[in-house]
Amino acid sequence: MAAVDGTPSRRKPSRRQPRSVVARAAMDAALEHGFERVTVEMICSRADISRSTFFNHFPSRDAAILGKPLDVPGPEVTHPILSRHPEDLVRGLLEMQVPGLVTRTPDSDILRDRTRLITEQPAAMRQYSAGLISIQNSLTDTVEGWLRANPQHARLPGKPRTEAVLTVTAAYAAIYAASNGWTIPLRDLAEPLSACLTAADALRDMVGVNDPSRPVSRPDVRPPGSADTSAPGTGLRERKRRDTENRIELAAARGALERGFAAVTVDEICQEAVISRSTFFNYFPSRDAAIVGRPLRVLPQETAEEVLSRHGRDTPAGAFALVFASLGYSSINSEVARLRAELSRKQPAARDAGTTTLVDAGTQIMATIRDWLAASPQYSSLGDDPAYEASLASNAAYAVICVMEDGWLGAASDVHASANGFAAAMTDLRTALARPDSSA
Fold first, then answer.
1. Per-residue pLDDT at 80 exceeds 90
2. Which of 51, 384, 417, 431 has the maximum number of C-beta atoms within 10 A of its C-beta?
3. Interatomic CA distance for residues 264 and 253, integer angstroms
4. In b/e form, how buried is each residue of 185-213, taking b as 16+ CB within 10 angstroms?
5. Where are the domains of the chain?
6. HEC assignment per residue over 342-361
7. pTM for the complete prediction?
8. Tell me, which fold does domain 19-66 have in CATH?
9. pLDDT-derived band of residue 11, with 50, 70 and 90 as boundaries?
10. Is 304 exposed, middle or buried (0-12, 13-18, 19+ CB in 10 A)?
């Protein structure tokens, strides 16, 4: 029997434990003790292995808990795959990624527990989101490089980065929907690649690729009047709390702009805001949260449904509106938003950290849309699977936000300008996803 957590086992460690046993031990430790408190030693004790055996299986503690990230091969491997489908880069990306995901996807019980972990523990969600964004950035670099080398195949001439972001996000939206939000191992699907390609086609239908006559609507991002009753109060205590919070956010954003996102410290933020460290952590869970913001606070279900219903069966526009209506509910200071937009424009690391706060809210956004569609099936555009449709709609909105100027932090700084930019970004998404056999 393994020793108590954190205490090295006295029995000679076995070196024959498969990776699945180590992953199970890591997940159990994270669920029991919390993601941030798990150590490699704790995992080794539970799995009854040595540290060297652990690192033969996983490169890090996070990889054991959240999954080993996929490597993105170099252009000598990726470019020939993309060149096989120059008119459908989403298919090329799926052919590149799905086989690796099929062989490396853990068992369904670990997937289920991983979903529970990232849903219940914010630290796990932040790390998971950061890893996902890192992979997507690497794939985006790959697609952008291919487009620059093959400009004759560009759907968006002069905008290779935009086209790459939209294509990669669409591919991941298809994988996410096909795997039911990563809860079904791809290897358990009869035809994993076919399921992902079907999801990509559903996304095309949803955003109007096959119906060029369908106009792109302007999202209505106004928070409903009912939001005022559930938004934070405006009493003296609340105003004092907001004043302190704003001082911290302003000090954090200014410090990051002056010294660099990675360089600014909690102590420097505290000194500038004239607060103690304990006060800082009473307001923010981490340094990054003070600089780029906490995860988005999504509107309560009843209020969110009012926003979504304004857009009828245009669920991507509804998802976009829900995100930005929720910003009003979050009461972001305008100067803080402006500084964060500048930070996003100048420092890619800050831009990625900001995007993580939106990805962190993704699960709640999808659940909100899913429940709305289940209760109001007349608004469905894809059939009788609300979760499937909600995931595609949310990822379509996410793709549009990602290609807006300065990304999520820039979009958040001017809600109405972002709503005006939705049509142009959605038109780019339609163009990037169009195929020769579509009517678009």
1. yes
2. 431
3. 9
4. bbeebeebbebbbebbbbbbebbbbbeee
5. 19-66, 83-220+294-333+340-440
6. HHHHHCHHHHHHHHHHHHHC
7. 0.83
8. Arc Repressor Mutant, subunit A (1.10.10)
9. very low
10. buried
